[in-house]
Design a protein that fits this description.
There is one protein chain. It contains eleven helices and no strands. By secondary structure, the chain is mainly alpha-helical. The chain has two domains: 72 residues, Arc Repressor Mutant, subunit A (Orthogonal Bundle); 140 residues, Tetracycline Repressor, domain 2 (Orthogonal Bundle), CATH 1.10.357. Helix 5 packs across helix 11.
Length: 237
């Protein structure tokens, strides 16, 4: 634990390896990639300094020369994944570009299911995260609103994506632990819900179900959620 006289520091402001000695054996990108491999295969809770050191083939204490804290390791991981974003020339259609970015972020989170747990403004200013943010702002050049408003748009869109994917992943994880199929689980829950709604105790819910009794199109729900966020930032005539 840091002492009272410790001062905050950012890993990106540190040299690749602290102290004197031979040429560093690993780059931060190597360390991030090793940690990501572990998290992808075994989950975020499996990521430890000891486990990452073993993956790299070095001693745990040696790893601390490169990454002083586990929080720094997490930041390296988030930065590594941020580098997977497809940074392309903006199309000139800010809505289309932001929708593309949102769908891309969703896909990234599904490839790395642990990522929503680490989504935090604290890790938002690493090299790749800054590159991503600059790209988003470039895509928003045609939107004539202050930069502060554009930053709010980006944050809100990321928040919607993170929350939506978090719910998707939680459902998948829960389903894996069930001793029966997902269809059986859903059928049992729908039957119970139907019995409660039919009791007459929930007239508004009954009206809602009668209004739209078909299956929920989750892709359409996601698309509508994104569009509603963007609609809120569309300049009014």
């Amino acid at each position: 634990m840091a002492g009272r006289n410790a001062v905050p520091e950012v890993i990106w402001a540190r040299p690749e390896r602290a102290g004197r000695g031979p040429r560093p054996a690993f780059r931060r990108a190597d360390i991030a990639a090793a940690a990501v491999r572990i998290a992808d295969a075994e989950g975020l809770d499996a990521v430890s300094m000891r486990h990452v050191a073993a993956e790299l083939g070095c001693g745990t204490m040696s790893l601390y020369n490169y990454v002083p804290r586990k929080e720094d390791l997490y930041e390296l991981m988030v930065d590594g994944i941020s580098g997977e974003h497809d940074i392309r020339e903006p199309s000139g259609d800010w809505r289309a570009d932001m929708l593309r970015i949102a769908h891309q972020t969703r896909a990234l989170m599904h490839r790395h299911p642990w990522l929503p747990r680490l989504m935090s403004p604290v890790y938002g200013f690493s090299p790749n995260a800054l590159r991503y943010l600059e790209h988003c702002l470039a895509c928003l050049d045609p939107l004539e609103v202050p930069y502060g408003t554009k930053m709010e748009l980006i944050a809100m869109l990321n928040g919607v994506v993170t929350t939506y994917v978090g719910n998707e992943l939680a459902t998948v994880e829960r389903t894996r632990s069930l001793p029966w199929s997902e269809d059986q689980e859903n059928a049992a829950r729908i039957a119970y819900l139907g019995s409660q709604v039919a009791s007459g105790a929930y007239p508004r819910m009954a009206a809602a179900f009668m209004e739209d009794a078909g299956p929920i199109d989750l892709e359409a729900v996601f698309a509508r959620a994104l569009s509603r966020v963007l609609d809120a930032f569309e300049p009014k005539e």
